[in-house]
Structures are given as structure tokens and as C-alpha cells.
UniProtKB/TrEMBL annotation, chain A:
Keywords: ATP-binding, Cytoplasm, Glutamine amidotransferase, Hydrolase, Ligase, Nucleotide-binding, Purine biosynthesis. It comes from Streptomyces lacrimifluminis. CDD domains: GATase1_FGAR_AT (cd01740). SUPFAM superfamilies: Class I glutamine amidotransferase-like. One of its GO terms (biological process) is 'de novo' IMP biosynthetic process. One of its GO terms (cellular component) is cytoplasm. This is Phosphoribosylformylglycinamidine synthase subunit PurQ.
From TrEMBL, chain B:
It catalyses: N(2)-formyl-N(1)-(5-phospho-beta-D-ribosyl)glycinamide + L-glutamine + ATP + H2O = 2-formamido-N(1)-(5-O-phospho-beta-D-ribosyl)acetamidine + L-glutamate + ADP + phosphate + H(+). One of its GO terms (biological process) is 'de novo' IMP biosynthetic process. Pfam families: PurS. It comes from the Bacteria. Transmembrane segments: none annotated. This is Phosphoribosylformylglycinamidine synthase subunit PurS. The gene is purS. GO terms for cellular component: cytoplasm. Part of the FGAM synthase complex composed of 1 PurL, 1 PurQ and 2 PurS subunits. The keyword Ligase applies. Part of the phosphoribosylformylglycinamidine synthase complex involved in the purines biosynthetic pathway. Catalyzes the ATP-dependent conversion of formylglycinamide ribonucleotide (FGAR) and glutamine to yield formylglycinamidine ribonucleotide (FGAM) and glutamate. The FGAM synthase complex is composed of three subunits. PurQ produces an ammonia molecule by converting glutamine to glutamate. PurL transfers the ammonia molecule to FGAR to form FGAM in an ATP-dependent manner. It comes from Streptomyces turgidiscabies (strain Car8). Pathway: Purine metabolism; IMP biosynthesis via de novo pathway; 5-amino-1-(5-phospho-D-ribosyl)imidazole from N(2)-formyl-N(1)-(5-phospho-D-ribosyl)glycinamide: step 1/2.
Amino acid sequence: MTARIGVVTFPGSLDDRDTQRAIRLAGAEPVALWHKDKDLKQVDAVVLPGGFSYGDYLRAGAISRFSPVMESVIEQAKSGMPVLGICNGFQILTEAHLLPGAMLGNNHLHFICRDQKLRVENADTAWTVDYDAGQEIHIPLKNMDGRYVADEHTLDELEAEGRVVFRYRDFNPNGSLRDIAGISNAAGNVVGLMPHPEHAVEPLVGSGRTDGLPFFTSILKKLVNA
Amino acid sequence: MARVVVDVMLKPEILDPQGQAVQRALPRLGFEGVSDVRQGKRFELEVDGPVDDAALARIHDLAESFLANTVIEDFTVKVEEMVGEEK
């Protein structure tokens, strides 16, 4: 058997097709989900892809968070369904309060696009079991609102519980507190990060590395062995 | 009809690089003596019907759940003026 992984398309999503392709390359079956449709089509996991849903109006992710599909995603995530938010998807997850903290504009006020070095801090989440803790990876980063903020208490709690999943290495591209690139919820089924693993899954394109592929093989392994 | 204004500001402890950029531009424009600028958002809601306590409570909920993200922002709600009424 294989796993069926939903990818939501919002108005303004950019990376939904790349994400579907990454899921297919990892050996799972991608399922297109639509923002207006509450039906999750009985998928085993959901990815919220990158882009500028609703033009980032109000705040990045603020309007998408109230879309019909998110009602189902929030409900299912709370009962343990794995959810990955990439870039705009991460912003939507914080706006939906499935992940703590919030995303703000990059501290230098510029859009940034670069190959980013990250350290995998937690290789036990549903989306990172195919990495090793402490492993360093390079995947593309491209965003305007990538500055992760949370109050000191929340940051301490995230660190203490091992919920900082990825940290920026060598260069903090946006002013994120404590160099945080990605976090998880307490249960570890919901993960969000700013960089784009779906753009680093084939040697022929992008950075020429496949450092992002383990996200998608991790979830496949997790679901098939479940 | 009445106009209800919701002002949203970043919390004081949250860095505001846009406000800082504005502040740094001021001396170039010959405007001295401003030590800090913070930038916020203002929403003007034209509300049908009376703005009674119940209506204000609903607008407060709207501001808290949607117009502001209370993880990073504070907000205020105030009734500004009656629109189109005879004095």
C-alpha cells in the first residue's frame, strides 16, 4: 500500500504542483485539495504549500486560515493527522494556532531567495524521521515574511520540548528569534518551516541536491508502518 | 449607520523594521526630533444599525480573532461617528 497525501490549493498558492511532484517522487500518492472544499478526500496527511494565498492581505495566512478546507485540517490535525506547512503553509499554521508564535516581515524588509543551510534539530517528527538529528541540509528559501517570533516563555518551552525542528545555520536570513526555521506542535504531527523542501528533490533542478526528499519519504514511512 | 474604528499596533516588544525605516528617513527630510516611529493598521468599519453593546462585543471578537493577531499585536475598538445622520 501507499499513502495518500493531500496538497491544498488556495487562491495564490504557488508551490502546490511542485509539492505534488515531490510526494510522487517519494513514492506516495498526491491528492489535490481545494480551499473551498471541506472534503479532505480521506487523505492520510496534508501539506499546506508555499505561495501568497489571498495576496498575503491583512497578514500572511490570516485569511486562508478561515477557508472551508482549514476547518477540516484543523479538526483532523488535532486528532493526530500529520500536517506539514511550508512557507505560506507555516504562516497559515501559526495563524490557525496549530503552531505557536507568529510570522512577521523579514527584518531587512527585502524578499529573500537563497540556498539555505539548516540543521535538523529533531528527527522524530512525522516529517523528519528520515533525517538524523544534527544533520545539516541545504534547501531553498524564498519569502517576504519569514521572521519567526514568539514570547520568551513560548521559545523556552519549544526548546525544552525539542520542538525546534530546524534552525538556520551560518546565516539568519530574516531575523527569526533563536535562528528558528521550523517548529512542531507538542504531538509532533504538525510541522511548519519557511524553507522549501519540495524544491530540493531532484538532482537536475534547483540546487542540484535532494536534501528535501526525506520530508516526503519520512511521512510515507510513518504512514505505511502505522 | 456608524463608523467603528479598529486600530491595530504591533506589541511594544515586537521589532518593527518598517517603522524604523520611516524613522531613519526623517532626518533626510529635514525633520528632526522624532526618536521612534511604529507603524500600525487602521480599519474603518461602516456598521448598519445601532452600535450597541452587543454590536461592539461582536466587533471586539472580530478584531481579536481576525483583524489582529494577538500573539504579536494589540488592538483598540472605538465608535468614531454617526454617518449620514441629521444633526
